[in-house]
Amino acid sequence: MSWAEDIDDISVEYEEDGVLVVKQEAKEVIARGTWPVLAFVYREWNATANDYGPPKFTLRKFRKQAGTYRMESKLNIGSPVQARAISEVLKRWTDEMGITEEPEVTKASKPRQKKA
């Protein structure tokens, strides 16, 4: 993985021997700053089937140091069923805690304009 200087350039796509082994399908910036958190939807290449497999999900936390973002930790979620279960548990917990604020994911996910 190469290190990105801009958060909007971070990707989980990975190519090996000319084959896109990990294909990114979606990205959301959950938090920006020195320790940004990003969520990705991706598919992995299945050479046997000659096609991409089912969608998978990953949450990644980065650290900006010396002008570049480096991945510090990740949580891979192997199936849509697991992703839904995690989402439902987190929603239930925040509801039980009375947290009613709406997340600013949409605002945080908008790419910033690059300086010319």
Task: Explain what this protein looks like in three dimensions.
Mean pLDDT is 88; it is low at 106-116. The chain is 19% helix and 41% strand. Strands 1, 2, 3, 4, 5 and 6 form a six-stranded antiparallel sheet that branches. It has one domain. The protein is an alpha+beta fold and 116 residues long. It has helices spanning 80-96, 105-109, and strands at residues 14-16, 19-31, 37-46, 51-52, 56-65, 68-77. The chain has two helices and six strands. It is flat.
Short description:
The chain is α+β, with helices and mostly antiparallel strands. It is built from 2 helices and 6 strands.
Salient structural properties:
single chain; 116 residues; alpha+beta; six-stranded antiparallel sheet; 2 helices; 6 strands; 19% helix; 41% strand; flat; disordered C terminus
- Content-based structural category: alpha+beta
Given as residue ranges, the uncertain stretches (5+ residues, pLDDT < 50) are 106-116
State the end-to-end CA separation.
26 Å
Radius of gyration, taken over Cα atoms and rounded to an integer in Å:
16 Å
Average pLDDT figure? 88
